[in-house]
Amino acid sequence: MNDLTARILNRLSTGDDFLSGESLCHEFGITRSAVWKHIGLLRAEGYQIDAVTGRGYHLSGLTGRPVEAEVLPFLTGRRFGKKIHYHAVTASTNLLAKALAVEGAPEGTVVVADSQSGGRGRMGRIWVSPPGVNLYYSLILRPEVPSIRVPQLTLLVAVAIHQALLALSSELAPMIKWPNDILVNEKKLCGVLCEMQSEPEMTHFVVVGTGINVNQAEMPPELRESATSLFLEKEQLFSRPELLASVLNHFEPLYDEWLLQDDLGFILPYLEKFSLLQSRDVSIDQRNRNLSGTVTGIARGGELKLEGEDGQTILVSSGEAHLQKKSDE
Ligand code: BTN
Fold first, then answer.
1. Ligand 1 atom closest to Cα of 127?
2. d(CA 120, CA 45)
3. What distance in Å separates the CA atoms of residue 143 and residue 259, rounded to the nearest whole number?
4. How far apart are CA 214 and CA 230, in angstroms?
5. What's the 214 CA to ligand 1 centre distance in angstroms?
6. DSSP codes joined into one string, 195-224
7. Residue ranges of domains in the chain, CATH in brackets
8. Which residue's alpha carbon is nearest to atom 16 within ligand 1?
9. Is 121 in the pocket of ligand 1 (CB under 6 A)?
């Protein structure tokens, strides 16, 4: 959708009343026939727009796509999501968001795609990104903190997503899996990939990429054992624009608080309460070594506290955690 069509859609989506063709011409500096052309483009995209002689245009049906005009009405924060760049398909929203951040896009800008042809996960994995069903988006942040604090953002985002999921359905029982996943019934529902451009003392920007499996009705065979979606868990469809807005609404105050603090201390009780790994035996794959032990908590800096067989606790700052089977399983 081109920028002007998107702006006309935004305008139609604010307020319940009819908007006259003349006022649209005036506001956007275009002719009557140009207004018609954009209304036609929006209808072709699936928007229902009533046209009544003497009254003008009225948006009566949305598409459920996570475009700016459909997300904005649900936003309650001041900054996050006020500008949303929507793409029907792109390689990766993280790549686009990084390019926008380099060009100077402000904090809170979001890039969202209906599908990704090269969705990226952690550790070089791909993120399966079929069209029409899920959320794939990246949020640009410009935190004025030393880069060493940036990895904490992954857990902070996980808390916001967790809160948004609980607000959506109190029966869902999502769990946060350190450092970047949300699981339901021990299957992955959501993953976060943070990327940054920084110097040691200064963070230029962070791109927080998030994939949430929302309405996907079938997982590819290789993911069936390990991944799930909201639809598969609840047998109901969820609004992607509302969920995106809710995550942003929950994240903005957490982020503002985190900027005032030195670490994640203020949110540790929440993280530990909903940590899938808490008190569990795990093995952790790191690039060049493997660790194992019992998880005793999360440190203020976001590291996993791991107690080894020797009774010593170490702080693990990165890696992929695998649950060991409980002894009675
Ligand atoms: C992971 O669990 O490995 C992280 C997955 C992150 C996927 C999201 S989808 C939107 C954004 N764009 C990408 O290419 N990746 C992230």
1. 7
2. 27
3. 7
4. 5
5. 14
6. EEEEETTEEEEEEEEEEE--S-----GGGT
7. 3-61 (1.10.10.10), 68-273 (3.30.930.10), 281-323 (2.30.30)
8. 209
9. yes
Note the pLDDT tens digit of each residue in 237-247: 999 999 999 99
Inter-CA distances, 203 with 79, 141, 155, 199, Å: 19, 10, 18, 6
Inter-axis angle of helices 32-44 and 21-28, nearest 10 = 100
* Peptide bond before residue 179 is cis, with ω within 30 degrees of 0: yes
Q: Are 295 and 279 in contact (CB under 8 A)?
A: yes
Phi–psi pair at 168, nearest 5 degrees: -75, -40
pLDDT one-digit tens code per residue, 23-72: 999 999 999 999 999 999 999 888 899 999 989 999 988 889 999 989 99
Is residue 77 within 8 A of residue 252, CB to CB? The reply is yes
State how beta strands 304-307 and 290-298 pair: antiparallel
- Cβ of 87 closer than 6 Å to ligand 1, yes or no, is no
Q: Which two tokens stand for residue 116?
A: 């990704």
Q: Give the pairing type, strands 110-116 and 84-90.
A: parallel
Q: What is the pTM of this model?
A: 0.91
Q: How far apart are CA 183 and CA 323, in angstroms?
A: 13
> Ligand 1 centroid to 134 CA: how many Å?
12
Q: Is there an atom of ligand 1 within 6 Å of 136 CB?
A: yes
Tokens standing for 234? 């609840």
Beta carbon of 191 within 6 Å of any ligand 1 atom:
yes
Q: DSSP code of 319?
A: -
